[in-house]
Design brief:
Length: 234
């Protein structure tokens, strides 16, 4: 590379790129943070849902218990009544009711045992899953803290990067700088100044004309790729 202006522009480009990286990362951080926070909310909702399901089963069990006790109370009442009735058929009717209640209680107790086993199993699974989820949430929260630190560091370095960029521009001739800014506005991403190697532009990777290839070697004024209009040098 024989053009000192191009050398200077390459430094400008380098600092432009650094600044852009900082700015791009700064715009990404809030989105990253939001998506991690959303994940945490989902995880917490899942834990809450599992806790709720477990609680429901415990409520069911309690209700069964209350029902069994009520039926046992009825049996007790019927037995007392049996001591007082005089007629045989009344006595038999009470016996029948007692037997029916006993059958119902038996069924309910079976259900209760099933439910207790289910609760134990669900509890085990819940505790194991909760531990995993909580560890994950903790890791996600740490990630958010790190993002915050990264954001602070980037914000702190952005002024330095801007100053370094401004500093690098001061020594560049106006027409080079003007063309550089023009290319930068037209091109979505660097490079804005690209080398030509084997007649190929390092920016668009297309073949340039022989004329451009040859011109790119001479200093004194900026030269441009005839495909993408980037500043080129050789
Ligand atoms: Zn090109």
């Amino acid at each position: 590379m024989s053009d000192p202006q191009i050398e200077k522009l390459l430094i400008v480009q380098d600092r432009d790129t650094s600044l852009q990286k900082i700015e791009q990362e700064l715009t990404r951080i809030p989105n990253e943070r939001a998506s991690i926070e959303k994940l945490i909310q989902q995880e917490e909702a899942n834990v809450e849902e599992a806790r709720h399901a477990l609680k429901e089963k415990e409520v069911q069990r309690h209700e069964l218990d209350v029902d069994v006790k009520a039926k046992e109370g009825s049996i007790q009442r019927f037995r007392t009544q049996q001591l007082e009735v005089k007629k045989n058929e009344e006595y038999r009717a009470l016996t029948h009711q007692i037997e029916q209640l006993e059958t119902e209680i038996g069924e309910m107790e079976e259900k209760e045992i099933e439910l207790m086993l289910e609760i134990d199993e669900t509890k085990k699974i819940f505790e194991a899953e909760r531990a995993v989820i909580e560890a994950r949430i903790e890791a996600q929260r740490r990630e958010i803290v790190l993002l915050g630190e990264r954001e602070e560091n980037l914000k702190a370095s952005i002024d330095d990067a801007k100053a370094a960029l401004a500093d690098s521009r001061t020594g560049v001739e106006a027409n080079y700088l003007e063309q550089y800014d023009r290319v930068k506005n037209l091109t979505s991403r660097p490079p804005y100044v690209a080398p030509i190697e084997n007649h190929v532009c390092g920016g668009c990777h297309l073949r340039v004309s022989n004329e451009v290839s040859k011109e790119a070697m001479s200093a004194g004024e900026p030269h441009f790729c005839d495909q993408c209009a980037r500043i080129v040098y050789a």
